[in-house]
Amino acid sequence: MSSTPHHDVGQALAYPEPSAAPLWVGTYHGSHDGERAVVTTTRDGTQSTTYGLECTCGFSQRHSDPVTLDRAAWRHTHPTLWDRWKRKARGLRRSARAQRTTVA
Q1: Distance (Å, whole) CA 1 – CA 45
Q2: Measured at the alpha carbon of residue 44, what is the angle toward residues 39 and 48, in degrees to the nearest 5?
Q3: pTM (2 decimals)?
Q4: Looking at residue 39, what is its pLDDT?
């Protein structure tokens, strides 16, 4: 049996290029608007803002700092009382505005 390599000695080995696909960083489970929500955070070195988050509700954001990304993802899946109140007030204003336009 021969112990020679399967390639020419003068030929350089070709290594695969690193994947351009985003790297999974974390998952946050929570809820907002009375529905379950899952936020997935990723790191993509090809983008100018390397860290991103995507929620099952369709919300997405990009950040350059992983700490800011972590805080945004946590707050999106665990809204504070103030966040919930602001969202409810916006909804009430929209419904009141819609009622005024249909009556007039």
Answers
A1: 46
A2: 110
A3: 0.59
A4: 93
